[in-house]
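Figure 6 in text form: structure in, sequence out.
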């Protein structure tokens, strides 16, 4: 004597699924990847702003110091590149780090390209100085690269590409500048070793950050979803209702609400047992989840056997259709209920209402408005829908009308 079939949670956390699949290639599913990068950018911004100022200052000081040693012959092309390419790109990096909207849009996309260009020009400049006998320039370049890799927030694959291109470009520049072979070999060994260590560090750091991101989101999901049904829990529903109420107030849009209560569920639990009751809740939760597919729809379990579906901008016909579909699907589920006085299977009562939020009202008024419709549906015999479309303006929030059959104008709708 149990509810038919087994039930798997309606909500499957994409974060826990990604944790199970793993991410050794440091890449999430597309939606999660976007979310991770947005969160990552916010977390590193202060560090980025500080470090880019330090790196630009260091570059200026290093350039001044390099001129004090054995410098390469003047190179008009190099001077033009510094003036017309490096400086504007450096200013752009600085602005994009300081301007929030620009930073969020372009940092992870444009910064690797800019750093490649600046790094290739810097490598060419460094090769000229090294060929002229100034080995301090190489130390400055390696320090700048390590600072770029570790402090400016590039992800691992970006770091790998940027490091490879700059390294190859630097040794091509050394060859063109006819640097001594022993100098080339020494600098190659140092650059490869330091870049390799930096890449290992960046990989493990990013892996830890991604894992921490997923774990935090999994815990957040556990706090927002009902474990029995996979729907939102009451706390998350209240947060969503408050947010959608404010949005509807701004947009002058409608908010529709369905409140669904399983008929005689206590009697069902007492007769069939709590395990069967849990499976019944899961089955009803799955039916309700199918009725809330639009992006702003919110389906939740808000009480023991009570559910709610919040619909933004839905018209009366859409609300009525969803309510009737839930009523019908619950009947088609054919979950036996021998202790029900109205049917031999599980049924539900549904209250439905739609309001246009306005100043002076609160989300609590919508909840009460629809709760009274639900009370009327239960008082009228259960296993039905009551749609309230009048009386909201006269509703006194916090004063529940117990005898709604006499005061509410809603008309019961027969079960299909």
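Output sequence:
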């Amino acid at each position: 004597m149990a509810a038919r079939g087994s039930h798997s949670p309606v909500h499957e956390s994409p974060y826990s699924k990604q944790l199970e699949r793993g991410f050794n290639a440091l890449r999430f599913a597309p939606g999660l990847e976007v979310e991770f990068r947005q969160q990552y950018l916010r977390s590193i911004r202060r560090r980025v702003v500080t470090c880019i100022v330090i790196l630009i200052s260091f570059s200026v000081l290093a350039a001044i110091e390099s001129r004090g040693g054995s410098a390469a012959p003047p190179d008009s092309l190099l001077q033009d590149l510094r003036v017309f390419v490096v400086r504007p790109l450096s200013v752009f990096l600085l602005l994009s780090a300081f301007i929030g909207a620009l930073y969020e849009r372009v940092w992870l996309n444009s910064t690797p390209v800019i750093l490649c260009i600046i790094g290739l020009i810097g490598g060419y400049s460094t090769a000229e100085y090294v060929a002229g006998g100034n080995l301090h320039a190489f130390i400055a370049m390696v320090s700048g690269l390590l600072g770029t890799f570790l402090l400016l927030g590039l992800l691992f694959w970006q770091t790998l590409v940027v490091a490879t291109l700059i390294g190859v470009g630097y040794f091509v520049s050394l060859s063109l500048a006819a640097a001594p072979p022993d100098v080339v070999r020494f600098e190659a060994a140092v650059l490869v070793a330091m870049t390799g260590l930096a890449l290992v560090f960046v990989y493990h750091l990013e892996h830890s950050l991604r894992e921490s991101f997923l774990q935090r989101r999994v815990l957040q999901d556990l706090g927002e979803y009902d474990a029995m049904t996979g729907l939102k829990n009451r706390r998350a529903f209240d947060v969503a209702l408050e947010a959608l109420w404010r949005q509807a107030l701004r947009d002058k849009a409608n908010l529709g609400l369905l409140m669904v209560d399983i008929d005689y569920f206590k009697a069902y639990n007492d007769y069939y047992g709590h395990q069967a009751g849990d499976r019944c809740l899961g089955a009803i939760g799955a039916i309700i989840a199918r009725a809330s597919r639009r992006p702003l729809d919110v389906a939740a379990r808000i009480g023991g056997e009570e559910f709610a579906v919040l619909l933004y901008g839905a018209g009366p016909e859409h609300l009525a259709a969803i309510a009737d579909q839930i009523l019908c699907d619950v009947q088609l589920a054919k979950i036996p209920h021998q202790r029900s006085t109205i049917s031999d299977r599980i049924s539900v009562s549904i209250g439905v209402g739609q309001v246009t939020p306005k100043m002076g009202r609160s989300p609590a008024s919508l909840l009460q408005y629809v709760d009274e419709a639900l009370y009327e549906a239960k008082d009228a015999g259960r296993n039905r829908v009551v749609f309230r479309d009048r009386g909201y303006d006269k509703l006194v929030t916090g004063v529940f009308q117990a005898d709604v059959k006499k005061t509410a104008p809603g008309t019961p709708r027969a079960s299909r």
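Caption detail: Confidence is low (pLDDT under 50) at residues 1-9, 403-416.
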